[in-house]
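Sharing a chain and its predicted structure for anyone who wants a worked example. Both blocks are below, sequence first, C-alpha cells second.
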Amino acid sequence: MVRSRTRRLEDAEYALDFLFKYKGKVYESALTLLVFRMTLKQWRAKGYDESPIVRLAVRKGLIYAYTVPEELPDEFLNAKGDDYDYTRFGRPIRILSRMVNDDVPGIVRTFKLR
C-alpha cells in the first residue's frame, strides 16, 4: 500500500510512504521516500547527514532521500508493552525486518534520478 503526503518532516516538501500490510492490516511505513527543497550545504548544516535519513541524490535544488523505521510498530508489543510479542507476531516481525534490512537497501540502489 502506498500513501503520499505533502508534509512529513518540517523540511520535507513531499513524502511517499510504502506501508507494510500483513493479512489485511496496514502497519507503518516500511520505506519512506522524501523530497527536500534545499541545497546540499543546507542539508549538511541541518544535520541530515548524521540522521537516519539517507540522501539518494541532489538535483536542481531538490534533495531526494529515504528513511526506514528504526523500531517495530507498537502493535507488535506484548500486553505489558515492554517487549515485542514474537510468539504472536513472529512472522510479520520477520517479514518487516527482512524488508527494512535486506530488501529496501537493494531497492533504493536501483533508483535512477535524472
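Comments welcome. The first strand starts at residue 2 and ends at 5.
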